[in-house]
Amino acid sequence: MDRNTSWRRPSAAGLLVAALLAACATIRVDTGFDKNADFSRYRTYFWLNGPASGDASVDRRIVELVDAALRSKGWRRAAEGKGDAAVDVEVLTEEEERNDTYYDGWVLNQNLGPAQTVVTTFREGTLIVNVLDGRSMRPVWRGVAHEMLSGNPAENEKLAKEAIARMFAAFPPGPAPR
After folding, report:
1. Does any domain span residue 174?
2. pTM score of the predicted model
3. Which positions fall inside the DUF4136 domain (predicted)?
C-alpha cells in the first residue's frame, strides 16, 4: 500500500483536535407552540419555576437571560401569579460517553492491525423553557436547547446566552395561517 494513503495511528494532538471539534458542535434548538394560542393577549409573565441546575449563579444568569429576551419582545415581568403567562424553566445535565476506535491498517474495506479505543466523557446540557397560559396553566410555547457543556463556567454562560437568543428569535409566533 502506498505510504501516503495508509492509515496511521492518530497522534495525541490529532485526538485532541477531534475532541475539540466535537465539543464545538452547534447548539441544537427546537421550538414549538400551540397554534390555537393568541399570543397577542400575552404581555406580562411571572416565574412559575426557575432553573435548578445546582449552581445558583448559573440559575440567576438563565433567569436574567430569559427576562431580557421577553423584555425585548415587549413583555413585562409581573408579581408571582399575576401575569398573562407563566414561565417554567428546566436545566438537565447528563454524562455521556463516546467510544472511537482507531486501527493501524485498512485493506480491502477491512480494519487490520492493532486497535486503539479512545473513550471521551462529556456532559450534555438541556435547557427547556416553557411558557404557559397564566390562567389555565396550559402550555402555549416551548423552547429546547441541547449542547455539550464545557468545564469553563464562562463558556457555559456563552452557550446559555446563545441558546436563549436562538430560542426567542421568532418569539412570539405569529397567528396560524387560515
Report:
1. no
2. 0.71
3. 29-173
